[in-house]
Request: fold
Amino acid sequence: MTNSLVFVLNCGSSSLKFALVDSKTEQQILSGLADSLGSDSPFIKIKYNGNKETIKLSAGAMHQSAIDTLVAQLKEYGLDDRIVAVGHRVVHGGEKFKTSALINPEIIAEIEQVSQLAPLHNPANIVGINAAILAFPTLPQVAVFDTAYHQTIPAHAYLYALPYELYKKNGIRRYGFHGTSHFYISGQAAKMLNKPVNQTNIICAHLGNGASVTAIANGLSVDTSMGLTPLEGLVMGTRCGDLDPAINNYLIEQLNYDQSQVTELFNKKSGLLGISELSNDCRLIEEAAEEGHAGAQLALDIFCYRLAKYIASYTVPLGELDAVVFTGGIGENSDVIRAKVLSLLKIFGFTVDKQANLDARFGNAGFINGSTGPKAIVIPTDEELVIAQDAISLIATLEQ
Ligand code: ADP
Reply:
């Protein structure tokens, strides 16, 4: 048996998602999450061979200890020897990283350099990289950037209307995120549409806790809703998305917030949670709206309205549209949100096949459009697979 397993890590500040991906069969053979890291009761949940296991970590345990515990567990399962590379999701690669990179000390220094653009995200990714290097000192480690796929966006779409010098000197521009997901979806959509990916035009809505829409022309990202940071654009679970930037001043000058409170408000207390005053979990919001909760209904209405406006605006860079595609936890599962968004886009002629929309849930892909109008597709995303495949193709270049 040839070894083809890639250990994929996605580190947040207090959590760590992981998967063991077989790059040959494209299957995840193990997956899980270490959560509440740094708290009194951190734990790891592992899914393997149809079993779910929870391992308690000692109080205050952080990423290193979670990774060490995981490695011990992989040994127990007899999987550690089959791992050929570690792939890391890195949120921000700035303009420096247009593709994935084999990690070495210079690459780590470069990732640290761009971290000032993503102080809420990249530091945790670097912690994960260093912990994995200690745990797997002999394996190649690969960084896969959320921003890389969006490096084909043209200047008229990525620049803010700020003094140009802020871009030239300080790199202030729109970068976009969720790139691995949008890239994966563009390939899968092309297959379902039976077209070469470099002739396929889609609008991809990745709707998870974070959410972004990307206009993809001929397989390449040409505009996307997230910006300098993952805060811009759509309404998200706890993030506000687009705002009048003067609200920042207003909160500070008139309502006595300090800057860190504003940052917390925009990132953690807004979005579906802030509007509904109930939850950031779309499932709960849909249930509450169904039962007549006015805040939950308003949160859904604002979420769908903003999303439909973005999708409509992305017909501008595309000119021709093959399909709108929904992915991410909400996009893959919420027939309610998909139907509502498409009904808001009726000017383009979208119609929805009710049964197909219900069928395309819980991991099932499918066309959900009716017999007239443009196509709409649901496709489950697989960022871990992209990370594993990138890692495998980078280590292949090492072996040449
Ligand atoms: P992350 O961005 O953390 O990877 P996910 O892509 O897993 O998030 O998406 C999480 C979101 O998907 C949550 O808001 C969750 O409520 C929503 N979701 C999952 N299943 C359903 C469902 N059946 N109906 C509506 N929303 C769902």
Remarks:
- The pocket of adenosine-5'-diphosphate is lined by residues 208-210, 237, 281-283, 286, 328-330, 333-334 (CB under 6 Å).
- The first strand starts at residue 5 and ends at 11.
